[in-house]
Amino acid sequence: MRERILKLQSFLELTPDDSFLKHALALEYVKEGNDAAARLLFEELLSTDPQYIGSYYHLGKLLERLDDPAAAVDCYRKGLQLSKAAGDEHAYNELNAALHELIE
Prior knowledge:
Helices cover about 85% and strands about 0% of the residues. It is mainly alpha-helical. The longest helix is centred in the last third of the chain and has 18 residues, at about 70-85. It starts with a helix and ends with a helix. About 30% of the residues are buried.
């Protein structure tokens, strides 16, 4: 796992604005249990590329684990708005299910 993280970090040094690499690295941090680094990277990614819709679900789930349900709800709602506007039905359904599971 650490090897994948180091490889992704080195790729990001070459292309620091690559949203796919940021998302992949954040997921590796989640797997490693480094929630703080994952959260920072997901938040950075979504602040620079808010259209990277898949990250809203993963950040929301991370926020739930970090016991921040209000932030998770906000994250899911923003992802829902963007996925609906983009016509991404799969992401919309995933985010909607996560939101309803959290608030019900």
